[in-house]
Specification:
The chain is about 25% helix and about 30% strand. It has a 6-stranded mixed beta sheet with strand order 6-7-8-3-9-10, with helices on both faces. A 4-stranded antiparallel beta sheet has the order 2-1-4-5, with no helix packed on it. It has a 4-stranded antiparallel beta sheet with strand order 12-13-11-14, covered by helices on one side. A hairpin with a 2-residue loop joins strand 9 (about 215-220) and strand 10 (about 225-230). It has helices spanning about 55-65, 90-95, 110-120, 130-135, 150-160, 180-195, 230-240, 255-260, 285-290, 305-315, 320; strands spanning about 5-20, 30-40, 45-50, 70-75, 80, 95-100, 170-175, 200-205, 215-220, 225-230, 245-250, 265-270, 275-280, 295-300. By secondary structure, the chain is an alpha/beta fold.
Length: about 350
Amino acid sequence: MADEVVELIDVSFRHKIPEPKFTNPWNTRKGPGIFKMNFSLESGKILGLVGPNGAGKTTLLRILAGIIPIDEGKIKLNGVDLSASGESIDGQLRLNVGHMPEQVRWSGNITVLEALNQFAEMRKDSISSEKLLSLVGLAGKSDASLDELSQGMRQRLSLAVALMGSPKMLLLDEPFNGLDPVAAKSVEKMIQELANKGVSIIISSHQVSGLVGFIDQLLLIHRGQIVADGTIEDIESKLGLDNRIELRGHGAIPDFTKLFGTDCVLNNHVKDSDWICIIQYPGPNAVKKIIDAGYEILEWKRKSPDIVELLCHATGLEIEDIGMELQTSDMMPLRSKTEEE
């Protein structure tokens, strides 16, 4: 078993919301945040931190980056309880963790190399900006001004800053936002190479589909709480969302009930002369069975659950409760993932 780089034990944090009173204009109350979080990440593993907007993803990353302190709980780094060392927890995290915020707005007339050197000067140890630029694929843009950079190049520059000091853990907040497919694939390759070198990586996202086959562990959070933790396959199986295939065909829609039974059809849609259907647990040779029955299949693929499906099944909430509704600033406790129905 690989060593655990970081472990969170009952970690909580609540943002302070201004609530001025006549006798105390600086009065505050507890707002949203994260609540009783427990999880760990092993060396060289990639964790996908997934949840809707406002779930607490950025708050959690800022805690791990040493930007905001925790209210209660413990954080262990390489097995050492940071609160027992006598040093600042925030300071210890900042020395060992690289943080890439979401969409840093790089702009100005200074060059890429000059910008990186400014950050390097803040470090005690000597840092080669040229090597960092080469690592993230920006060596050819070292003399370009920040205003000349594309969104993909800006993301690479943010990654270069996060990699200063050779961090043991890398935190990436929505690293694929605004990237075209080619640039996203390039960044994904760099992340995988870093993981292969032993760097533990946490990627924040509000999508699950782009992380399938890329991450080792999925952490699904909602309203500041963990509702699912494990591999994507294990979570799908536990929530009853595994072994699903999506089929697209032409002509008459197959009689799936006759072919596979009454409970396998989850959804079907017919438009003009084409049809789309999602079936679950169809058994082996399902596609061959449909073709042998005389039906025409144009495409078939594994159906991965999206974030809404995962949240609905993990929390017991309806889609209307998860959708676009903004949560109140007060925490709304959900049932525990280990709680009996």
